[in-house]
Amino acid sequence: GNGEGDGAVWVSALNLVDLAGSESMRNTGTTGQRATEGGNINKSLLSLSLVIKKLAKPNAFVNFRDSKLTHLLQPSLSGNAKMSIVCCVTPSDR
Fold first, then answer.
1. What is the DSSP annotation of 58-70?
2. In this structure, how many other beta carbons lie within 10 angstroms of the beta carbon of residue 70?
3. 6-53, pLDDT tens digit by residue?
4. Nearest to 45 by CA among 89, 92, 93
5. What is the DSSP string of 32-43?
6. DSSP state of 5
7. What confidence score (pLDDT) does residue 90 get?
8. Which conformational region is residue 29 in: left (phi greater than 0), alpha (psi within -120 to 50 degrees), or beta?
9. How many whole angstroms separate alpha carbon 44 and alpha carbon 51?
10. Rounded to two decimals, what is the model's pTM?
């Protein structure tokens, strides 16, 4: 029925990740610290996409420790969870 007395516990998590700066460096002309920061963000996005692809395969080993982003999101990405991802992207061809 209503779940009373069965010992079940609902846990919620909200992760807000700002990946601003993940634009292509060749198009933005960034250099120095900003270029390094953008490169690190792009590496994290690559790691996240690889983790999501592995999660779609049954019994595949998923390495969440490839980036800080995937390591921090591991509880939300694995296990018995429902997850939604909202992406705000530009339609620009740049």
1. TT----GGGSHHH
2. 20
3. 888 888 888 888 776 556 656 666 667 777 777 778 888 889 889 989
4. 89
5. HHHHHHHHHHHH
6. T
7. 74
8. left
9. 10
10. 0.66
